Amino acid sequence: MLARTPRRSSGFSLIELVIVVVIIGIIGAIAIPRLSRGAAGAADSALVGDLAVMRNAIDLYATEHGGTYPAIGTIEAQLTQYSDAAGNTSATKDATHIYGPYIRKIPALSVGAEVGETAFTAALGTADCGWVYTAASGAITANTGALEKDAAGTAYNAY
Q1: pLDDT score of 141 more than 70
Q2: DSSP class of residue 102?
Q3: Residue of 66, 57, 104 whose CA lies nearest to 85
Q4: Residues 133, 125: Cα–Cα separation, whole Å
Q5: Cα(65)–Cα(147) distance, rounded to whole angstroms?
Q6: pLDDT, tens digit, for every residue of 71-117?
């Protein structure tokens, strides 16, 4: 008579499953905070990129218009449409409107309380405006409060 050896099932034991769940929990506890900080960092990077594009467009406009920066009331049209030497705009290019456009569209503010706004203002803190623009110098910043800062503690309006 042959002795029978007990059959071992080929599944996982309860202890093995618990160990796997604990390891997944540890990985999640490390990864989730890093991923959530990534979203805030993306908005900061978007702001830096948007400011660089708009500053470049404003500088190019000034170069082609004899050092004159776009006016606060017409900056969107002057950057996104064709213009003549005096800064008058037209949606189509013709014999007199030979400059521009310098940017396809004005980007929306990506951070702060006015997130999503594309309008320009001359004063910081104006509601429903994304960008603070100074026509005399061509300077542009984000329309955010002094308490709205990035992870490093830099105010967004100081970018």
Answers
A1: yes
A2: -
A3: 66
A4: 12
A5: 37
A6: 999 999 999 999 999 999 999 999 999 999 999 999 999 998 898 99
Decide if pLDDT at 35 tops 90. no
CA neighbours closer than 13 Å in the CB half-sphere of residue 6: 2
**Pair type for strands 82-83 and 120-121:** unpaired
The mean per-residue pLDDT over the stretch 52-59 comes to: 96
Distance separating alpha carbons of residues 108 and 119, to the nearest angstrom: 8
More confident residue, 4 or 131: 131
pLDDT at 146 over 70: yes
Nearest to 20 by CA among 31, 28, 9: 28
- For residue 78, the surrounding DSSP H or E stretch is helix 75-80
Q: Which tokens go with 61?
A: 């406009």
User: How remote is the C-alpha of 7 from its chain's centroid?
Assistant: 62
Backbone phi, psi, residue 151, to 5°:
-65, -25
CB 88 within 8 A of CB 81: no
